[in-house]
Amino acid sequence: MDATLADFIAVNRRELLRRCAVKVASRSSSPEAESIPESEPGVALFLDQLREELRPGASKTTEIATGAAKQGHALLLRGLTVGEVVHRYGDICQSVTDLSVEIGVDISAEDFRTLNRCLDDAIAGAVTEYAHGQDVGRSGDAHELRKLTDAALIAFEALQMGVVGVSGRTGAHVHRTLLDIRAILDRSGTEVTTPGCR
Question: 2.60.120.510, 3.10.20.310, 3.40.50.980, 1.10.490.70: which CATH number matches 2-138?
Answer without folding.
Answer: 1.10.490.70
